[in-house]
């Protein structure tokens, strides 16, 4: 065998690794050999399913954080009509609506034969509808929702008069 320099290593010899300790978190029994002889990671399906469901619930309750921030932004936008308040209200209405429309795409990675993601998806949609209600509340405080009879007055027929007054006629 040729003499090796100071910075050379012989990768063909396995005896040199006899005293090396496995790194933290490494478990040799987590790998099993299949019939081809290659090692593969054993996956516990029940644990994977439980982890997916836990992530689905975390995703379902995530919009609660954004509702608080949106409520604060709506409060800070004031009670007058200006471009900032209109952009904030538009955002408060559009974000929950688009989130509800994309709910199937959001929860598709968590769905499998063991997990029913209908309940987390329902919670996700309800929380987003709560955020949309905040936007509708702000529209009402700005006076942009037609909630009074006077808002619909142009569509009402004129009332019939009970009396009629005429001017006197000179003879």
UniProtKB/TrEMBL annotation:
Transmembrane segments: 72-97, 117-137
Subcellular location: Endoplasmic reticulum membrane
Metal-binding listed as a keyword: no
A cellular component annotation (GO) from this entry: endoplasmic reticulum membrane
Pfam families for the chain: EMC4 (PF06417)
Keywords: Endoplasmic reticulum, Membrane, Transmembrane, Transmembrane helix
Membrane topology: Multi-pass membrane protein
InterPro entries registered for this protein in UniProt: TMEM85/Emc4
Family indicated by similarity: Belongs to the EMC4 family.
Protein name (Swiss-Prot/TrEMBL): ER membrane protein complex subunit 4
Species assigned in the record: Prasinoderma coloniale
